[in-house]
Structure formats: C-alpha cells, structure tokens
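Reviewer 2 asked us to include a model.

Predict the structure of this chain.
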Amino acid sequence: MRSLTALLALLLLLAGCASADLRQAARIANEEAVASGSPFRWETHEVRGDTVLRRIMIDLPAGGTSADAQLQQDILALITKAERTQSRPAPAVTEIRILPKGREVWVLKSATPGEAIAYIVALRPASRGGTDIVLTGPTPFTPRGAAK
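Predicted model (structure tokens):
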C-alpha cells in the first residue's frame, strides 16, 4: 500500500512541481525501494533548465546467469512473451547483473535511445521437481551515463 502511495505522489509531482518536491518524492520512493530490495532508484536530473525524475539501476556486479542452457531458453521465452505484450521487438540481452538471494537482473537493449529494460529473474525449486521461474518486469530505466 505504501508503494502505491509513493507512486501516486510521484505521478502527481511529475506534472510540473518544484525541484525540491521532486527530490522529496525521489527520497521517499528510494526508501521504499531499499526496503523492498529493488535494484532501482529515482534521481532528479536537470534537462534544459527543468528538473525531471529518472529511474536508474544501482551498481550491481555483472556476471553470468546461474541458469543452465534449458532454463536460459525458458527465461528468454518468458521475456519474449512479455515484450510482445508491450509491442516491442524480440529482446536482446545486453548483460546480466547479480542481486542478493540468487536473483538476477536481465538487461535488454531498448529501441528508445538512452533507455534500457530490465527483468528481475528468480529461480526457485518447484514443489514437484524442476525449477520455477519468477519473472518481474519489465522495468524501463536510464543506464548511468546515458542521459545528458
């Protein structure tokens, strides 16, 4: 419920409030992101004299996936299905970042300049054997250094 409140506050503030209000909204949203274990944060950014919010990903170690070849195909199939619902082309994974507790962030190239798309992937033992894939996303974000 609290994250919904923060999201609504952010949406209201995006309509053109003062930069101090945006910084406050980002601070509140970031506190909730830390508490929930999200790898994303909000930061204020100056664009042609206006202050805007942008979503960034925290610095995470790059690495390979823990998924075997079959699970990688299954993960990519789920991401492809999710990307189709957003009317985006077939995904191109540019990197995998490692989160605590065995989660991974699969980062995709975006057709929008200065943007990337992320999916959080968690692999869990299935109750009847095998592995369950828990996919969270898509989350568009601005890679560090992409926006000027």
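The mean pLDDT is 87. The first strand starts at residue 40 and ends at 47. We have added this to the supplementary material.
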